[in-house]
Amino acid sequence: MDRMILHSDINACYASIELLRHPELRGRPVAVGGEQELRHGIILAKDQMARAAGVHTGMTLWAARQQCPELTILPPDFELYYDYSRRVREIYAGFTDRCEPFGMDECWLDITGTGSLFGSPVEVANKIRETIKFELGLTI
Q: Which of 3, 54, 89, 125 is least surrounded, with the fewest CB atoms within 10 Å of its CB?
């Protein structure tokens, strides 16, 4: 039997979670970055609007503001991100017990042999994607 491995990555993880917490920021470029008050740090994550404006991960906060003056930069809340990561992995566990995390937002899922339960690999991937979107509001 061929092995079926899915790679799952939460899209713009930190920024997406912050937008769930701060829905009033939707429609504006948002990033998560270091300590603004101390005037140091880098961009850790950005939403699609910030990305389209040229903001990228690893960019200094100062340079990101130069690139995108309307950018809202939020401080990281790793406790919250870990909680969402745990909840996403609980959803994965409903599909397979063979999950290999890679960081907070990525996992490889071995779905070999789950076809009789959930369908083809594409159907399994779509069910996982839909479940995470419905239950947590995140896209993968």
A: 3
